Amino acid sequence: MENMNVSENKLSVSMKATSRLPVPGVLRNKRLLNEENLPAIDMKWYCEASAEGETIQRRVPANVAATRPKAPPVARSQVTGRKSLTATRAGLRAPAASARVVSKKPVPSVSAPRTGSVAAVAPAPGKRRAAWDLKGQVNDMRDKVTLYKDKMHLLSGDNVQLRRNEEMMLQQLEATGTENKELSHRFRMLELDMKTVQEKLQQSIQQVAELTSLSARQGQQIAEQLQTIQELQDSKGSLSRLLDSGEIKLKLAEQENARLREEVKALRAQVCDQQREIGEKEERLHAQEMERRHLHNLVQELKGNIRVFCRVRPLLKCEAQKSLEHIHFPSQDKKSLVLSRTEESHVGREKEAVKYDFSFDQVFQPSCSQAEVFQEISLLVQSALDGYHVCIFAYGQTGSGKTYTMEGPDDMTEDTMGMIPRAVKQIFQRAAELNSKGWTYTFTANFLEIYNETLQDLLVRRSEKNVEYEIKRVSVANEELHVTNLHYVSVGSEEEVYKLLHSAKMNRSVAKTLLNDRSSRSHSVFQLRIEGRNEIRDLKTNAVLSLVDLAGSERLDKSLSKGDRLKETQAINSSLSNLGLVITSLSNKEAHIPYRNSKLTYLLQNSLRGNSKMLMFVNVSPLDENLAESLNSLRFASKVNDCVIGTAQVNRK
Ligand code: ADP
Ligand code: MG
């Protein structure tokens, strides 16, 4: 029964799990068994049932055995061991067989109810069948067998049912197994799905985390942007305030602008008027300028077109002589000087002071500065810009101060600058001023020396001196002179000219031994060609400013003059005396002016004509020992000073 209950339980579980089980038959049998109130049967001893319900009894259940009539003690005691057991079995079989036979006959005495229990069939306790009542006993047994057969039949039916159930259960189990397999497969699939889902979930979680941090960052950015927006709004507010104030200012500025425009209009009208006035004034100015030039020329003419300035240099520190006793400058008179020396009288042996008076256009005492001297020639320099050929000479013995006057000392300063740099400076300054009056100028400079009647370019080094310099006219129609191979340098400022002067000085510097000082034995000629153009009035000027530092005028001791020195002396004397001759010829208005007699006069012929302006510095040494030479120089200069060489004319086209 325990097993039954287990299978029943299993069944009920199975039924619970599935509704396909055929339960009713079993339940019915079970009910039947219970209803019949069968004695407890030990199922260990149950017999096997055939499919047809036949029962082959192998063992007798314990309780059945208990109901079996015990063998008589005699028989038991007679039979022992195996033999007695077999006998017992045989004894049992025998009554059974007999009972089967007997059952065909109803037993009236003992009739047990069909549904009654074994206990009910059995005679009540204390009322046992008598041993002799074999018939009764057989009946009892028969009943019992019938009962058991019924039970067996029932149980077989149950068994069949159970087998069916089992089969069904097996099928069900199989189905369940398949289902289980499917389910486990699905489960695995689901597990895989779950894994995928989990991974996705993990990814999602990660994404969520990332998104969270991103959103946090974005939140921060948004906060920052909000702050920026706030700041921008603030600045917008301040800007709009500024704008408001700016607009106000703009309005004010516009008003001011309108006012200023009006003013500008008025000023423009004024400017127009003034420009017209300026034009008129310029016209007047030009007329005045032309008038000034005319008057200036007139003054120069009145002064004479050839003028002579005398300059006595001061005593140098190195010179022993203490005073200038033999040279006198009449007080307040800047035009004369007196040289005196003691000479033997014609009548006796007594010595008498002889005076030599000289008068010139200007006499500069030793104390006169370069600036003072230049002031007197600046008008002449101006004439060169106005279109007049101008020629300035420095004449005198060596050491009288010619080079100092013309160029300045070696350690030249602003104060000690000579006439050439000062003239150049003035010309460039004046040209710049005249520029505003419509005049434009171009300047070309050259610097040469004439030594022993040969020309040498001072703007090239001596090593390059193998070229021939020839003085030629530019053309037959043009009187302008041109020296072949000479450097004509176009200059635009005084600084450029200063550089040329410096390089000329370098090229000229030679050993200054007294007799062999080539610089003192040669004429140096600096020329600046000035070409002016006034486009507005269609005017052109062309003039040459020549500044000449002549060779020393001293006469050499004839006994010392031999060979080259004699030739050199003759050349110097010849050119200087020829210069005097040209000037006197001009003065005498002679038909033939001997320009060709010397290179110097030939080169300067255009500046030594009646239409040119000449100035001669006669430089005088203050030394006693040079008195004779000083007298010679002054006499030569006086001759020149006495000359009147006509009226200068402007070279204007
Ligand atoms: P030259 O050229 O006639 O031979 P320099 O010009 O060489 O003479 O002058 C001779 C010396 O006298 C130079 O040392 C020069 O500096 C000096 N000298 C000439 N004139 C003056 C002057 N006006 N003031 C100062 N020193 C002068
Ligand atoms: Mg000199």
Entry keywords:
653 residues, alpha/beta, 9-stranded mixed sheet, 3-stranded antiparallel sheet, 14 helices, 14 strands, disordered N terminus, binds adenosine-5'-diphosphate, binds magnesium ion
Element order: H for helix, E for strand: HHHHHHHEEEEEHEHHEEEEEHEEHHEH
Please identify the structural class as seen in this structure.
Answer: alpha/beta
Count of separate DSSP helical elements: 14
Q: Major sheet, described briefly? A: 9 strands, mixed
Which ions and ligands are bound to the chains? adenosine-5'-diphosphate, magnesium ion
Unreliable spans:
1-120, 510-515
DSSP strand count: 14
Average pLDDT level? 77
CA radius of gyration: 82 Å
The share of residues in extended strands comes to 5-15%
Molecular shape: rod-shaped
Overall helicity: 40-55%
The N- to C-terminal Cα distance equals: 165 Å
